[in-house]
């Protein structure tokens, strides 16, 4: 079980916002001095989001809960944008916005149930085990992808990121003390979880869907299809070797090297784009509030 942490409130950078203070200078749960803002300032993390979905699909009960309660095949891009908006709000929104987003998602999850197709058991999709799996695979995907893309993060930075992200875990209803707060604790958590993971029918179906989803704006028969498939393949290859082996593919070091080279090139390409294409309004508003709070 992850060790206890006293870092459940905001750190120094994020503590500039207390209830009742001017929201215009509210830097939210993390703030400009946090590792979280450094990591999530990277536009390449879109790839990390897809990577996390591949990992999450390997938990049989987690993916069954998604399949039985979601219309992701009908409107995949709408779901993706809602998820990105939630993550962006938690990371870069004001304290009130982050807490409101957490309340909304807890309310949605509390109403959802799923059925284990092997045992027939009905279960809540907001069980701590499932919430923890989604949280850990998500934050590990973010920080691991950022590092492999070339963002300079020390081992202490990575540990700091995981500890900071316990605040996000609390928003979805988890006890922060039960959430891995260091890289070593994340590694130990993955080792404990691996015997429970499997390539179920739902996981395989999700794999194929993520690799070849319907593209919006009639882009399916354009070069955009090749671009997306390349990005999805990179996201898949960025998974740990053990996860790729569960999917029935090789977990070779050469695959890791190829994925790292690809994501580094993608980061350089994205950083060369004009700012308006790199970051959305939630990020830009956060930077404006941080300037006021400085």
Cross-sheet strand order for the largest sheet = 1-2
Arithmetic mean pLDDT: 89
Number of domains: 1
Structural class: mainly alpha
How is the biggest beta sheet arranged?
2 strands, antiparallel
Uncertain ranges? 1-21
Radius of gyration: 19 Å
Q: With helices defined by DSSP (H or I, 4 residues minimum), what is the helix count? A: 15
Fraction in beta strands: under 5%
What's the number of extended β-strand segments? 2
- N-end to C-end Cα span: 38 Å
- Determine the fraction of residues in helical runs and give it as a percent range: 55-70%
SSE string, helices as H and strands as E: HHHHHEEHHHHHHHHHH
- The best one-word shape is globular
Fold blueprint:
Layout: H1 35-40, H2 45-56, H3 60-69, H4 76-92, H5 95-110, E1 113-115, E2 122-124, H6 128-148, H7 155-164, H8 166-171, H9 183-193, H10 201-211, H11 223-237, H12 241-246, H13 253-271, H14 275-278, H15 281-293
Antiparallel strand pairs: 1-2
Can you give keywords for this protein?
2 strands; disordered N terminus; mainly alpha; 294 residues
Please describe what this structure looks like.
The chain has 15 helices and two strands. The chain has 294 residues and is an all-alpha fold. A two-stranded antiparallel sheet has the order 1-2. Strand 1 and strand 2 form a beta hairpin. The longest helix has 21 residues, at 128-148.
